[in-house]
Amino acid sequence: MQRSKQQALMFLLGAVLVGGVLGFSADRVFQDKQKHWGPRMRMYNDLELSETQRVTMDSPLDDRNCQISAVMKPVSPQIDAIKKAGHQQVLAILEPEQRVKLELRVQEMARRDSLSKIRRDSIRAANKKTTTVCNN
Which has fewest Cβ within 10 Å: 106, 112, 132, 135? Predict the structure, then answer.
């Protein structure tokens, strides 16, 4: 009898832990979606736009982003060179173990940016009936 109570207790504890992990994971996934669309959605909510207005508003905002990307494209190599030179200057200041830590942070940020771009693109594709194509 004691053994079955222990097993039941362990089963419940396991279920609570699994539920907590799943809930935490789901929160992270939905929070990331909210982060990308957050500023735009807050503006839409503040303006009390209808769903039709929201969909219509997405187009000029996406067009604006495409235009900004087009303007930035020619100077991107220069910006990248400036960032790289600055990074090299910072590395020269750091001790070897600090350099390793910094490089790990840079890799993690690049990974997050990559995942964020993938999510953003997939959310955009799922939410749009028509896709905006940037002519870059």
Answer: 135
Number of compact structural domains in the chain: 1
Element holding 63 (H helix, E strand): helix 51-93
Distances from the Cα of 42 to the Cαs of 15, 57, 101, 113, 122, in angstroms?
36, 13, 36, 22, 21
Question: What's the pLDDT score for residue 115?
Answer: 83
Please determine, for residue 34, whether its predicted confidence score (pLDDT) is greater than 50.
no
Say if pTM beats, i.e. exceeds, 0.70. no
CA dist 113 to 32, 56, 107, Å?
Answer: 12, 28, 10
Show the domain range for 73. 2-127
Shortest CA distance to 32 belongs to which of 114, 128, 108? 114
Residue 136 in domain: no
Give the mean model confidence (pLDDT) for residues 103-119: 87
